[in-house]
Amino acid sequence: MKTILLSISLLFSMSLFAQKYTNSIGLRFSNVGFTQLNAKHFLNANNALEVSLGGSSNYVWIQGNYEWQHELTSDFDYYVGIGPGMGLVSGNPIMNNSANDKFMVGANGVIGTEYKLPDYPFTFAFETGPYLQLIPNLRLGWNFGLAARYVLP
Fold first, then answer.
1. Could you tell me where the DSSP H helices lie in the chain?
2. What is the pTM of this model?
3. What pLDDT digit, counting tens, does each position of 97-132 carry?
4. Which residues of 50-84 are buried (b: 16+ CB within 10 A; e: fewer)?
5. How does DSSP assign 49-80, residue by residue?
6. Model confidence over 60-87: pLDDT tens digits?
7. Is 106 helix (H, G, I), strand (E, B) or coil?
8. Are the C-beta atoms of 83 and 65 separated by less than 8 Å?
9. Domains of the chain with CATH codes
């Protein structure tokens, strides 16, 4: 019985130290959406949810991703993910849509790397991947972004 309890506690403690942080918040700079508020929350050592909210003078966009994150080195991780996005547009068209299109829905995939500063509560990430607009028109695009986030205590 002691061996089983010791094994379970060892596995649990290893999973706690495998992830570098639990929550972070910051900014994401993107080719689509310009500057966005960005937050990341780890569900466990290798699975995270990331949400971005941004836009420009004529639209607002929200994007959510479910990500699978794994360690490359002690400070660098890589991740892949997928998620939905939606936005509201007013005035000038974006993504080659007409000025009458007011609502947009799509999905994207990401692959990226993340660097956690070893002695400071900051992370930096670069990601890229395809974007598929579903509503109002079917369009395929490519996104990339750079995020800088503060790791919450």
1. 2-18
2. 0.80
3. 555 668 889 999 999 999 999 999 999 999 999 999
4. bbbebbeeebebbbbbebebeeeeeeebebbbebe
5. EEEEEEEETTEEEEEEEEEEEEESSSSEEEEE
6. 889 999 999 999 999 999 999 999 999 9
7. strand
8. yes
9. 21-151 (2.40.160.20)
